[in-house]
Amino acid sequence: MCTLMNCLGYGPHIRQARRDAHRERDRLMNAQEPGTKTVITSGSKAEGLTRMYESDMDMMYVVEGIMCLENGVDSDKLPRETTVFTLNTGVCYHGHSRLNLLGRLGDIIPSIIRDALCEDENWRVFLSSALLVDAQSDIAPTENEIRHERAGPSMPSSSGPIHTDNVFSLRCHCPVILSRWAERTRHWPPPDIVRKVVTMGSFVTPVGFKGSEYQHLEWRICFNTGENELMSSLNNTQVYIYVLLKMVVKDVLKPVKKEITSYTVKNIVLWLAENNPQAQFNESNLFYWIREGLEKLRTAILKIELPYYMIPERNLMAACGLDDGKKCTWENTITDMMNEGSNTLLRLPRIRKAIISHPEPLMWYNKKRIEIELLQLKLWNRIIQCKNKNGVVNMSNPMLQALFSRRCDLVIEVHTRMNRKGSRLNDLIKIGDMMLM
Asked: Signal peptide position in this chain (predicted)?
């Protein structure tokens, strides 16, 4: 099974290559526009678990010059130009907070922050999550960018085959919350990873708790960079559990209203990893852990309860909108899958197709697909490096030309073999894009 997962692009080499490429892309983008905001890739792309066009890119834009602090944290050590907000969590659902202006404005306040400030009846100044997202939507789109309807804290957009979830966020220093997480008794992660996650800090994103009277003022506390580090420290078997359970949600349960998401599955896997000895997560036990994961998912659906891995008091299933009919259907489906053993994988289209395919063409195609993906990742980053200050790309750059040439050769090679097998698709651009989906 692990050989099959490696062939499909989930092996450690391609995962690491994806992670490295996205980190480098973040570095290049931040070097081009230093100061106002910092770009951080998160989600499945940062984890190295999806192809370039396979799912949305989760992009977080951290507004610089702003810091949010837990109550009791000293702000005196921050630079004087920093605008400081305090977390007011006592009046919000777990994992959420209002942001009170500390009375200290920085020298330069970004307009997106200034336009989101508001006052209550007692003249206290808050930062409104709803107003910030509204201000974000006023930012002019880039060339060829198509904007879509808001989804939670995200303003989704697309450009050709690339779909992006764009989220503005603020840095947050919450040592009490992180120390509670770090001090838990656990099998995983190891102490060095725990310390690293703590040093990475946290963020707040502009979305309140569903159904809250003050949802427009509330922000969600999150740990994107820390969670990226945690996912990178999972072993291969744990990664495959995560990937296969994500396929179950997407291809079998097929939620329409995001009642459960890949983030639900991620938290299930993180809890499994923390609560069980690492030596038990090996290839020979993969199907046992798939069943354990399915059982945890079924329990979360039945009880409408799943603790957030970083802040267990926050229930990820709260206000998820799951109705009784869907709950019953999913319970029965998951129970059937648990009883099917390894045959349950035949329900997953990508796995089923790979299992019934002839090994030679499957291995050949996936080898070409992985090479094209690695080339495309290098192309993305090289294009950024070859842009001038006006955004014009120097297409005569030798490295850029070599990457384009090799990618073109590979697509032609795939097209030729497709034609020999009876395919009538002759659009090389479409073939190249399909290989990255």
From this structure: none
Query: Is the separation of the CB atoms in 372 and 410 below 8 Å?
Result: yes
Q: How far apart are CA 109 and CA 202, in angstroms?
A: 21
Confidence of residue 385 (pLDDT cuts 50, 70, 90): very high
pLDDT at res. 186: 97
Residues linked to residue 390 through DSSP beta bridges, in sequence order: none
Does residue 375 have a pLDDT over 90?
yes
CB neighbours of 240 closer than 8 A, spacing ≥ 6?
1, 2, 5, 10, 286
- The type of residue at 35 is G
116's tokens? 């989101």
* pTM of structure: 0.93
- CA distance linking residue 3 with residue 19, whole number of Å: 21
The pair of structure tokens assigned to 227 is 């969670």
User: Alpha helices, DSSP H only, in 161-223?
Assistant: 175-182, 191-200
* Angle (CA) 184 188 192, round 5°: 90
Report residue 59: phi and psi, to 5°.
-115, 125
388 CB-near residues (< 8 Å, 6+ apart)? 394
pLDDT of residue 150: 84
CA–CA dist 154, 60 (Å, integer): 9
pLDDT of 111: 87
pLDDT in tens, 345-371: 999 999 999 888 888 888 999 999 999
Distance CA 33, CA 143 (A): 17
Helix (H) or strand (E) holding 294: helix 286-303
Q: Which position has the token pair 């659902």?
A: 93
The closest alpha carbon to 252, from 346, 341, 356, 354, belongs to 346
| Exposed / middle / buried, residue 211 (Cβ in 10 Å: 0-12, 13-18, 19+) | exposed
Rounded to whole angstroms, how far apart are CA atoms 99 and 117? 10
Q: Which two three-digit tokens encode residue 36? A: 């106002």
